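Risk register update: the risk of archive-format incompatibility is retired. Evidence:
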Amino acid sequence: MRKVIAAINMTIDGICDHTVGIPDEDLHQHYTDLLNNGGVILYGRTTYQLMQFWQTLVKNPSGKKSMDDFALAIDRIPKLVFSHTLQNTDPKATGWESAKLATQEIENEVLALKQQPGAPILVGSRSLIIQLMNLNLIDEFQLCIHPMVEGKGLQLFDNIKDRTIFKLLKTKTFGSGSIVLYYEPIRE
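Archived output:
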């Protein structure tokens, strides 16, 4: 059975926003490796549209290896987008050949994906992480904590139905002071 990995950046005060944080070469390389080892990534509409920024670097590389490598990795990985408002992921409109809209509710899509052979299922959107956590469908959390307080924004663990206890699997520290905490939920 395929593993579902929730991987997201957040600040010390728990704010999840892909536009805040302290990105550096090591962090881009970390996420490039994660994407290269994933089988599919699940996005909500907002994060999917935000990540389309990376298409510009696929077409016009920046010259910064870590950013250009990340752009190629995110371009390659299949993307499954959950949205009630997007009509399609037409490559002419979005630029991504590797994206498609989910056709079922998230629980059914993820349960079906878990049964298929292949590499891990990655989840990179706050809203989907909350939904999947409430459904007990996340096998591992990779929380990258940036050493900053944002003070405003959306918190990751908002609207969680049940208390969850985690087992720390390992940590990974970056020169910027950011740290990835690898957690496994303990199923009671």
